[in-house]
Design brief:
- This protein has 118 residues and is an alpha+beta fold.
- It has a 4-stranded antiparallel sheet with strand order 2-3-1-4.
- Helix 2 runs antiparallel to helix 4.
- The chain has a single domain, classed as Alpha-Beta Plaits.
- It contains 4 helices and 4 strands.
């Protein structure tokens, strides 16, 4: 019985330990496209996020497939995970980000951004 209790406690502590608070930074964006934007323009924005992830040092992961977006009339959500706040700050002034913004801002009606870290 003691072994069963010990095994159960170890499994519970392993589950709790997996909920870490990493030092990375998440940049989460929700977007509402302009009504006159095209599917091709919108796809170019998504491809630009992928491209930035290969060009900008410090981006660890990206998420680009919408599951649910709030507010409901918004069209896209994406997230970038940065190694740390310094990597995020470098991204905001990088040439790759500035080039991407030209495509993005031309068709964005509204966006909401959350930057989250521990």
């Amino acid at each position: 019985m003691k072994r069963l209790v010990l095994a159960t406690l170890l499994m519970c502590s392993a589950t709790l330990a997996s909920a870490a608070e990493p030092g990375t930074l998440l940049h989460v964006v929700t977007v509402k496209w302009r009504a006159d934007s095209t599917a091709q323009q919108q796809q170019a924005v998504v491809e630009g996020v992928r491209r930035m992830a290969t060009e900008i040092k410090g981006i660890r992961n990206i998420w680009i497939k919408k599951v649910k977006v709030q507010p409901a009339d918004f069209d896209l959500s994406f997230a970038l995970e940065f190694e740390n706040k310094a990597a995020f700050e470098a991204y905001t002034v990088s040439d790759a980000h500035k080039a991407w913004e030209k495509t993005y801002l031309a068709i964005r009606e509204e966006s909401r951004t959350q930057d989250i870290t521990n």
